[in-house]
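Form 7-S
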Amino acid sequence: MSVTHSPETHALLIARIPTVTGRELHEWFDTLAKGPGLSSCAERAHWLADEHNLSHGYAQAIVQEFDRRRRNPAVPFPRT
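Output:
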């Protein structure tokens, strides 16, 4: 089952990821890029949650943001 957050909830989840996970968003993007070649968002979110002990809500938000930024090159990937 796919979870779709409202834009407001998604923005809050994305903003809290570094605090909650101890890793910056770009680190999660690198993890997804190097992860297994799963095709669906749900599969990648479940893999991320299971492999890295994240809640499925945060995993889904990371995958959605990763895909959004890949589709829209005008939105830069964050780097620190």
